[in-house]
Automatic annotation (TrEMBL):
Keywords: 4Fe-4S, Cell membrane, Iron, Iron-sulfur, Membrane, Metal-binding, NAD, Quinone, Translocase, Transport. Transmembrane segments: none annotated. Residues 44-152 form the NADH:ubiquinone oxidoreductase-like 20kDa subunit domain. This is NADH-quinone oxidoreductase subunit B. It catalyses: a quinone + NADH + 5 H(+)(in) = a quinol + NAD(+) + 4 H(+)(out). PANTHER family: NADH DEHYDROGENASE, NADH DEHYDROGENASE [UBIQUINONE] IRON-SULFUR PROTEIN 7, MITOCHONDRIAL. Its main location: membrane. Binds 1 [4Fe-4S] cluster. It comes from Olivibacter domesticus. It holds the Pfam family Oxidored_q6. One of its GO terms (cellular component) is plasma membrane. NDH-1 shuttles electrons from NADH, via FMN and iron-sulfur (Fe-S) centers, to quinones in the respiratory chain. The immediate electron acceptor for the enzyme in this species is believed to be a menaquinone. Couples the redox reaction to proton translocation (for every two electrons transferred, four hydrogen ions are translocated across the cytoplasmic membrane), and thus conserves the redox energy in a proton gradient. GO terms for biological process: aerobic respiration; electron transport coupled proton transport. The gene is nuoB. Belongs to the complex I 20 kDa subunit family.
Amino acid sequence: MSDIKLAPAPPGVSGAGFFATTLDKAVGLARANSLWPLPFATSCCGIEFMATMGSTYDLARFGAERPSFSPRQSDMLLVMGTIAKKMGPVLKQVYIQMAEPRWVIAVGACASSGGIFDTYSVLQGIDEVIPVDVYVPGCPPRPEAILDGVMRLQDIVRTESVRRRESDEYKALLESYGIHNG
């Protein structure tokens, strides 16, 4: 955030100054402070997310005060809880329907690694079906840990290039998950 500075006006120009920054930094700052979360909660981590949205922890002060339950109006997917293999295609479809650019936070041990459920029916991490940007550890994680995960995602969003989503590396990442963007 300190990279955006008010520069003095050039000679012959009246006024207090003008903004001197790159488009990437300005867009990154705007995106990082206006994330719209989509909670995908299947277990106890969802209760911790509810506490995070409450007045004690207040996720709204980080610019994510509008949880959306429509993937088309969200750009931050928070997956919380155990994801059965039968839910994998549903989770992938929700991810595909989200607005671009989109980011994912795996909240808790179950979403990150399957947790204690090392069985045939449970995904051993949602990164088997969709790309994950931030992992939040815990079983269940405290609201402070979820807030830390959101702040880490804000750092990623703030520094991400506007052109990253058109890069060959990003397209290859989506292709590796069987997601065809375009």
